[in-house]
Amino acid sequence: MPELPEVEALAYFLREHAVGREVTRLDVASLTVLKTVSPAWTELHGRQVTGAARHGKYLDVDCAGLHLVVHLARAGWVRWSDALAPAPPKPGRGPVALRVRLSGEPPAGGKPGAGPGFDLTEAGTKKDLAVWIVGDPAEVPGIARLGPDALEVDREGWGRLLHGSTARLKTALVDQSLVAGIGNAYSDEILHTARLSPYATAGKLSSESLDGLAHAVREVLTGAVERSVGQQAARLKSEKRSGMRVHGRTGLPCPVCGDTVREVSFADRALQYCPTCQTGGRPLADRRLSRLLK
């Protein structure tokens, strides 16, 4: 799932490539992706792209005051092309859910009618990619519920946010209404950097642990943003994977201590951690694995 660093990089990419261009046409290949009916998507036609921003994990393309807001969910992505095919994408065929065509000429030798723009795509069978067309991003329910941006929370802010919470620390970090922008992958990386257990009680962290958490959030997210911003959109996924120390590395050695990275599986996701660095050498309980072993 694209998280704060990748969405920040996508917003930067669109500011560099789309701002100043006019929306010439939207092709909607999947009506279910649109979560609003008014204003109609056709009202974006003829509007100039004036900005691109991020709200937590939401991408916001400002078209002269009318906002195309996108939540990429687990498998969504933005795919830019200097020369989109002139024909609209076929509904129900392929990964393209929505295509935004922009003004400008294709590269030399491009097909007649081709031009720059981007596709919103989604892989897999579970379709959660969502698009809103609104006058104000705060009209999107998920944005209205967002907590403060993770990069804007300081040490004292983390203390206030977590005070009294009985949630596991991993659960608290990915709660977008508590703090915005952190997802499954970067929460694993943050907890590993801070040397904290995913199962620690969020509201019972020591002062030293809060210091470590605040430092780790900034270090991990800032580092990921710096690696991502300026990259071509097509390279962002591989850039994200290459920067991970524990997430997605089950069975591999921890780059800090050499212990084996472990995993705890849930119904729709999994977390990875290093026992030596984070849990005093003790493996965390994995109920799914325990059931299999009975």
From TrEMBL:
Keywords for this protein: DNA damage, DNA repair, DNA-binding, Endonuclease, Glycosidase, Hydrolase, Lyase, Metal-binding, Multifunctional enzyme, Nuclease, Zinc, Zinc-finger
Catalysed reactions, as listed in the record: 2'-deoxyribonucleotide-(2'-deoxyribose 5'-phosphate)-2'-deoxyribonucleotide-DNA = a 3'-end 2'-deoxyribonucleotide-(2,3-dehydro-2,3-deoxyribose 5'-phosphate)-DNA + a 5'-end 5'-phospho-2'-deoxyribonucleoside-DNA + H(+); Hydrolysis of DNA containing ring-opened 7-methylguanine residues, releasing 2,6-diamino-4-hydroxy-5-(N-methyl)formamidopyrimidine
Cofactor: Zn(2+)
UniProt xrefs under Pfam families: Fapy_DNA_glyco, H2TH, zf-FPG_IleRS
Keyword Zinc-finger attached: yes
Gene Ontology terms for molecular function: 8-oxo-7,8-dihydroguanine DNA N-glycosylase activity; class I DNA-(apurinic or apyrimidinic site) endonuclease activity; damaged DNA binding; zinc ion binding
InterPro entries in the record: DNA_glyclase_Znf_dom_DNA_BS, FPG_cat, FPG_N, H2TH_FPG, Ribosomal_uS13-like_H2TH, Znf_DNA_glyclase/AP_lyase, Znf_FPG/IleRS
Swiss-Prot/TrEMBL GO biological process terms: base-excision repair
Residue ranges of domain FPG-type in the record: 245-279
Domain Formamidopyrimidine-DNA glycosylase catalytic: 2-104
Family: Belongs to the FPG family.
Name the UniProt record assigns to this protein: Endonuclease VIII
